[in-house]
């Protein structure tokens, strides 16, 4: 999986198609990501010492194949490529504009 926490992505499939958000969490073993404001589900929370009970809304994970990175230059969705910099260190780039990703 080529995504990292903090990447800005757009959903390309599913009920939230077209929504944009930042990646909050990556689940590498399951090949899933959690994106803020996307795939919000209701969870019934039991009260405990720190939290009160009730129905809360949380973001659920979605499959990594259903999101694409947003190109920082063109603001459109793009694929991720890899290349090496001057120090022979592997870096991520966008395929559309060859922009370096942090």
Could you list the spans in which at least 5 consecutive residues all have pLDDT below 50? none
SSE succession: EEEEEEEEEE
Computed over alpha carbons, the radius of gyration is 17 Å
Assign the structural class, choosing from mainly alpha, mainly beta, alpha/beta, alpha+beta, or little secondary structure.
mainly beta
Q: What can be said about the biggest beta sheet?
A: 6 strands, antiparallel
Beta strands, count: 10
Number of separate helices: 0
Helicity, in percent? under 10%
- Average residue pLDDT: 95
How far apart the termini lie comes to 15 Å
Strand order of the largest sheet: 6-3-2-1-7-8
> Globular, elongated, flat, extended or rod-shaped: what is the shape?
elongated
Tell me what portion of residues adopts beta-strand conformation.
over 45%
